[in-house]
Amino acid sequence: MQDHFIHFETSGFKLLTSFFRKQRYRSYVILVDENTLTKCLPRLITAAPLLKEAAIIETESGETSKAIEVATNIWRTLSDLQADRSTLFINLGGGVLTDLGGFCASLYKRGIPFIHIPTTLLAMADASVGGKTAIDLDHLKNAVGNFSRPEAVFVDFDFLLTLPERQINNGLAEIYKMALIRDAKLWKNFNESAIEDLIFRSIQHKIQIVKKDPSDKDLRKILNFGHTLGHAVEGLSLAKGRDVLHGEAVVAGMIMEAHISFAKRLLSKNEYLEIVKRLTERFAFVSLEGITSEEIQHALVNDKKSSAGTLNFSLLEGIGACKWDQKVNWSLCEKAIIEYKRLSHG
């Protein structure tokens, strides 16, 4: 995997326009949601006028769009448009759109070229980088997907100005995760006002990890820290009709999985308490009311990281380091859930 395919735009999508001139695609299709349709698409078309003729496919924002029914509708639209391998599929949005759009493009006619133009902090710092695509299966996060790298990723920091604070926090959660698993110095000196630097550093770490392990066989699994229990919480919350963002659930997962790391003596008590203090002061708790232990256990067993019913976690080995393929019994998970609930009730 090369890192030159990630471009940081600083002057009105000049790099994107140059990319179009070099590649000479026959047609263009842009995937948007209702937010990027109004807030981001006009800026993109103004900067790259050739996209005035692009077909626009709109889907609803939010995790519920990562569904096979939505993907099928996108494939039908591509067929109606007579899209083929000379068509460029452009994903203009956050992590949901890059996951969904990459998945659809990678499978349509055995794969048509696609690029990501991330518009959220979460997508810029994490979701658009790494070449993973996925949709959900019922409430199981990213249960169906593949590895398919975009032709390029174009990061325009100006899109951050369109985001509400909650979406900024949603992305910061993944950058805090990167600090915990890979960069103790970043954790110690985390400066939220230097948002562009945080994005650069997060992307650099992810590229280094993915280069060494593009197919998620070993090292790349450290990126799952906070996501095993976090995905369970996210999926079950959404299934119950609750408004929970990915980053919010990941923070809950990081707190619980830090507890497991401490219980397995990989993380010192002082480090565990420091993590809990920092994350609970910075982020709101996700309510686990009405979500049963049995439901969480079922979600964990069906998680893509589990094998033959064995729960596999990526756990912290001190702040700034992480171990993957750590077997964890259910009792430790349950204790971590109980402790998270206790913390959330003050």
Short description:
This protein folds into two domains: 6-162, Rossmann fold, CATH 3.40.50; 165-344, Up-down Bundle (Dehydroquinate synthase-like, alpha domain), CATH 1.20.1090.10. Helix content is 48%, strand content 17%. The chain has helices at residues 14-23, 34-39, 41-47, 68-80, 95-107, 121-127, 165-182, 184-188, 195-212, 227-239, 246-263, 269-282, 293-301, 330-344, and strands at 6-9, 27-33, 55-59, 87-93, 114-118, 132-137, 140-147, 152-156, 312-316, 322-327.
Plain-language structure description:
The chain is built from 14 helices and 10 strands. It has 346 residues and is α/β, with parallel strands linked by helices. It has 2 domains: 6-162, Rossmann fold (3-Layer(aba) Sandwich); 165-344, Dehydroquinate synthase-like - alpha domain (Dehydroquinate synthase-like, alpha domain), CATH 1.20.1090. The strands form 3 sheets. It has a 6-stranded parallel beta sheet with strand order 1-8-5-4-2-3, sandwiched between helices. Strand 4 (87-93), helix 5 (95-107) and strand 5 (114-118) form a beta-alpha-beta unit. The radius of gyration is 20 Å and the shape is globular. The N and C termini lie far apart (45 Å).
